[in-house]
Structures are given as C-alpha cells and as structure tokens.
Amino acid sequence: MAPKPETLAAFEAAKGFMPLREGLALYEAAAEAAALGLPLLEVGTYCGRSTLLLADAAREAGVVAVTVDHHRGSEEQQPGWEYHDPSVVDPEIGLMDTLPTFRRTLHKAGLEEHVLAVVGRSPQAAAVWGGSVGLVFIDGGHTDEHATADYEGWVPHLAVGGLLVIHDVFPDPADGGQAPYRIYCRALASGAFTETSATDSLRVLRRTTTGL
Ligand code: SAH
Ligand code: MG
Question: How do residues 165-210 score in pLDDT, each as one tens digit?
Fold first, then answer.
C-alpha cells in the first residue's frame, strides 16, 4: 500500500518534520486502520506534511482524517529555538500561525474534503470528542505534559483493533527527547497493545484489548 504519486509529491514539497521512510510507514498504518471504517486522528498538524498521507488513506477508504493543532507551534518551534521557521509567523500579532500554510498544502494536493481540521489544544479536543477512531497518531508537543495528555486524552477513543502511532520515539536520550518514548513504553506496559512495526522513530502499536 502506497500513497498516490501526486500525494507523495505534495508530501515532499510540504514543510514539516516527517521523513519519507517514516511517512510511508505512517501511510501503511493509516491505510490499514482506515479499513475499520472509523476516522483517523492526528495530533500535531503543523503545515500538513503528515496530514497529506492520512488524508490520502482516508480518501481511499471513504473515512475522514481529523487533525488537531492550535497552530501556534511547539516549544522548540518558537522564535530563537532550533526548529523555528520565521515564514510561519503571523506578522500582525507576532505569533506562529501554521494554519494558512496547512490549508494551502491540503488544497494544492486536492485533499481538503477528506480532512477535518480542529484548531485548538489537543486535551480540550479529546475531552469533547464523542466517537471511536481507528488510528491515533501522536506527533504534537514533546514535553511530558503534552505527550502524556495526548496519550491519556485520545487512546480511550481508539477502537480495539485500531492502531496507535507515535512519532519521535528515541530509546536513547542521545538521539532526542524522551516524552514520546515514555508514552510508547506506557502503552506497551498497559498490556493493551502489541507492536506491529518500527521504522526509525515511528512506532505502530495495535490495540488488542479494551482495558488500559
Ligand atoms: N506532523 C507534523 C509535525 C507536527 S509538529 C509534520 O508531519 O510535519 C508539532 C505540532 O504540534 C505543532 O504544530 C504544534 O503547534 C502542535 N502542538 C503542540 N502541542 C499541542 C497541543 N497541546 N495541542 C495542539 N497542538 C499542539
Ligand atoms: Mg514528529
């Protein structure tokens, strides 16, 4: 299973933090999960790079990809930090705003109608979310506070048989921050998941039981 060539081209052209190899693994997980007939859920839209892949899989299966972001950027994307991009600052208010870039990315790829964009904080969205989802992709804030809230907020909405995908999992602290790794360990320790694939820092786990 692979994304359409035009989706891949849009992905390669999009701003963001998802390498191709991991993107292809994400797509595979999304295509598999979409067969459950439930929405695919992403935390951390940024400029829509990974969202394109979820949207492509959602289109194939006739489901919707839901993507949540306040669009103000994570800690490490703020001015003065390593991953800051001045071209995504709203000059009028002086804060990051990745929503316009995201919308352009999605529009150019012809995938707008397969995506529901939720603009706001992930825990607040999770708290009002009513139904089950077939995939939870966690790629939002990388502090323990944010990663834990994403896990605790969204995993209860994940259907049994659905997939939990976590990005930026680095077992060795020398390679990166540990918060995504800690929620990955927590998922495995819960006994409710089995790992189905690992591609660089992207981990895919299947929910096997209702207990958490
Ligand atoms: N998936 C993207 C990268 C996401 S970067 C890609 O493929 O390129 C992480 C994003 O998470 C940022 O855009 C940031 O605004 C968002 N974010 C961080 N903490 C958040 C929170 N608590 N709620 C919603 N969005 C959050
Ligand atoms: Mg990431």
Answer: 999 999 999 999 999 999 999 999 999 999 999 999 999 999 999 8
Q: 212 pLDDT exceeds 80?
A: no
Residue 123 covered by a domain: yes
Kindly give the number of the ligand 1 atom that is closest to the alpha carbon of 167.
Answer: 1
Whether 155 is covered by a domain: the verdict is yes
Average of per-residue pLDDT values in the chain: 97
Pick from 178, 145, 155, 128: which is nearest to 41 by CA? 155
Q: In angstroms, rounded to a whole number, what is the distance separating the alpha carbons of residues 125 and 10?
A: 27
**Dihedral over alpha carbons 169, 171, 172, 178 (to 10 degrees):** 60
CA 86 to chain centre: 23
> How many domains is the chain built from?
1
pTM of the model as a whole: 0.98
**Does ligand 1 come within 6 angstroms of the Cβ of 59?**
no
For residue 70, the domain's CATH number is 3.40.50.150
Q: Which residues pair with 68 in a beta bridge?
A: 43, 118
Percent of the chain, pLDDT > 70?
100
Q: Is 157 a catalytic residue?
A: no
- Domain coverage including residue 33: 5-207
The predicted structure's pLDDT at residue 9: 98
Question: Is 212 among the domain residues?
Answer: no
How much distance in Å is there from the Cα of 139 to the middle of ligand 1? 6
16 lines ligand 1 (CB under 6 A): yes
